[in-house]
Amino acid sequence: MSGGDAPKRKRLHFKFSCRNPSVKDDSLHMGGPGFSRVVFCNDSDRYEAGLLKYSGNYVRTTKYTLANFFPKSLFEQFRRVANVYFLITGCLAFTPLAAYSAVSAILPLIVVIGTTMIKEAVEDWGRKKQDFKALVKCEDPNANLYTFVGNMEFEEQQYSLTPQQLLLRDSKLRNTDYIYGVVIFTGNDTKVIQNSMDPPSKRSKVEKKMDRVIYLLFFIMFLLAFVGSIIFGIATRKDLKDGRMKRWYLRPDDIDIYFSPKRAPAAAFFHFLTAIMLYNYLIPISLYISIEIVKVLQSSFINQDLKMYYEEADKPARARTSNLNEELGQVDTILSDKTGTLTCNSMEFLKCSIAGIAYGRGVTGVERSMARRSGSPLLDDEGHIEDDSADRKSSIKGFNFVDERIMHVNEATGMITYEAESPDEAAFVIAAREIGFEFYKRTQTSISLHELDPISGTKVDRSYKFLNILEFNSSRKRMSIIVRNEEGKLLLLCKGADSVMFERLAKNGREFEEKTRDHMDEYANAGLRTLVLAYRELDEEEYKVFNEEFTEAKNSISVDRDEVIDEVAEKIEKNLILLGATAVEDKLQNGVPECIDKLAQAGIKIWVLTGDKMETAINIGFACSLLRQGMKQIIINLETPEIKALEKAEDKAAITKASKASVIHQINQAKAQITASKGSSDAFALIIDGKSLTMLWKKMSRTCF
Description:
InterPro entries: ATPase_P-typ_cyto_dom_N (IPR023299), ATPase_P-typ_P_site (IPR018303), ATPase_P-typ_TM_dom_sf (IPR023298), HAD-like_sf (IPR036412), HAD_sf (IPR023214), P-type_ATPase_IV (IPR006539), P-type_ATPase_N (IPR032631). By secondary structure, the chain is an alpha+beta fold. The chain is 38% helix and 19% strand.
């Protein structure tokens, strides 16, 4: 894309992996269960490649194909009991029993089924429209989206492959124009397809209720036909007397099996079939087609409804499956994420604590909500403004490293913009720039900054070399990098949650711990997302040993590779010196409190998932009207002193037993509280942490919840 004053990106071309390669042949687990896949890249002429039989690269997301459309669509149509009935009566219309022509019975059925099939075809077509030589050794196909174990042998060197090198289907390139890739999983072996299910045949509650009504009409119709056939059989048998017909004027000239008094049971049976055809108007054939027309019109109105149009993203509402239009009014539970759904996912660096001093001013949306609830006047937070001494400037440097981001330069204006894996990291870099530490260049192995000299007031160029990145994951709850500065010093810089960071501080690194904790509590109560930052200086020998173990762990191929990497990282992420804490705000989207309030008034139960601390989550719940004044809170968590002591002792069996007992006790207390409030108008809110929810879902019976 080119032209005009469009900003151009400073492109950084990366190799397949920036980790150190290894020539070690780690084949201990290869060939065993779960580790048998081998891929020859651009080398299909090899004899071994011809022996490998894997799934093709074709996958289908539509419900129908040209080959199966008619049989599958007909099967779907005749799942409707009324269509089966009209097909039977249409077939019977070709017999002499019919009181009307076969065309008049079959043609409406063909029109109804044909119209519905055309609608299905149009909707399915809409879904369809939306829709170097190396050796790679990796895990077998599986449904886990968050792990990938393998390595690549390229030019007699070995590179580890991790989830960061794995591009899943529907991935979008943002920070580069192109990539080089190797197809590892194809067709039904891909992770997305293994996690997907066949498109279900969706039927609304109204349609299912219609079937029950039709069954009732069937019963009435069969009852009428049965009673009529019994009376007809009795009358036919009694009609013959002394060899003559009493009601000869009602009999055809040629008496056959259908009207023979000598075969009255058979005549009654055939009369039953005739009655079924005569009474078929009890079930209107236009019922389904009328509803289909209404649903198509409803879908058109939904698609054109301006009140359901999202102007910012230029996205109107889309009714993709018209069969479920009426289900919109039957929703009783909503599951929602917080970040990006209730909030804007646009982070603003609002406050921070550096060396025990709180910086930043401003009032958050949560604080405004708290002030409204308490009826107290809202006072602006003036923050703390002090002279930045050299030692605090040194501390601020630590805020600038522990993230992964890409910079873009508008060559016309020289303005630098940043993109990061998460909005939090972009907020950190922007905030650092505002206080004199501007990130302006990054390569595969280094980062360059403009640092404001506290003495001369001029900008000084600094360069830092990247050595290792210890990635964030949900169990570690932290991320670290190891860099070498211009003086040759090795620094480990770490950011993470307070629950894992404070326990890794050295004895001489806790000077500001108490004040930092107090500041973080204030930030959490204000609804801000907090992180703790710390660092330590490494000696060469310690780093050398760590790097060897880390490289070996990264290049290993085993099912427990991630655990081994975490164990290696655990050895060096200790004896840290506290720098401070950050606090960023993710503002609520406009109209969220009003929307949730209306949903609650409609009796809809709302579940919100968030990764925030429990105090922060509760305050945000009040801010977005998920929690309301006077609502009784049922809090279930495992943050008890007993369980924390067991976690420090690393006694997994005791932790599981104590956790289960604690959760059961808390649930029983909650049930008793709810039972005692029956008959009253009390409203309850359940607040449960991730550990307790996992315990309930995996270790215990769900019925107790």
